[in-house]
Fold this sequence. Notes:
Helix content is 33%, strand content 20%.
Amino acid sequence: MPYSEHPVFNQPDEEVAVWRYYTSTQLISVFQNRGLYFNRSDKFSDPFEGVPHRDALIQDYIRSAVSKKTDKRLIDEGIATPVGEYDPMSTRDRVFQHINTIRQRAFLNCWHQNNSESITMWNSYVQSGDGVLIKSTYDILKSALDVYGDYTFYMGEVGYLPWLKSGTDEELSDAERTNAFSNLVNKQEEYASESEFRVVANLGPTELEDSQTGFFMPTDLNEMIDEVRISPDAPPWCTTEFWENILRKYKIRAEVRHSSLNQSPTDLLDDLNYDKIEEEVDDLYEEWVREQDYLDS
């Protein structure tokens, strides 16, 4: 059960660059396990991850409250028989029990989509400077995950909407309004700077182990990783030689270099073609001489 298309997942250009920022320990764990780590959606720091937007949440509450009243009336009239013992769970608890059941089956792996590195992402995910990023593209990432085919997974861009305000429903497509995956590919507009691209694996009850909070999905790391870049604030020991040795140990072939942000202004003049520059300097100088009437020709 490999990659699958889904109407609520918005697909970018296949060659768009995607970036994943890691602490050193996190990336080495990816190498050791030969796969990307997928975290359960209810275990992210954002408590609204996978939760419906405000209007949808209110409608879920109303439907649950009505259902609770109709069930009680049918039981009181002797038309229906209670199933099991009386459940005193409140309507709000019932709503979130259903939502959390879905969230506990959805596992996410998240990337940053951009044309270049992001200093904001470096500061957010590699605060100590002890870390790296890996660069890939949409189509390469999909192919690297699809090669084993043990899990069904979906991929797409994250949309950013006024998730906590009224009126959000009007900005969603028909598919998004009626499918629970919509809650996994849309987030609050306050997170828009993350420009997130994510992979979602949805596990059925029979595939889940008790208290499972994440898993490593087998991945062709050699195909997936285009570059490894070292943090612009890396400590002295975090060199290209260090990471080249790490990659060699785990039989991963990828270019290692420092972040493009790890440059000084003078570095911009290091790689110039000075022969060509000198020709331009000479031409400009000769032009200047011709314009000075008081100089001897």
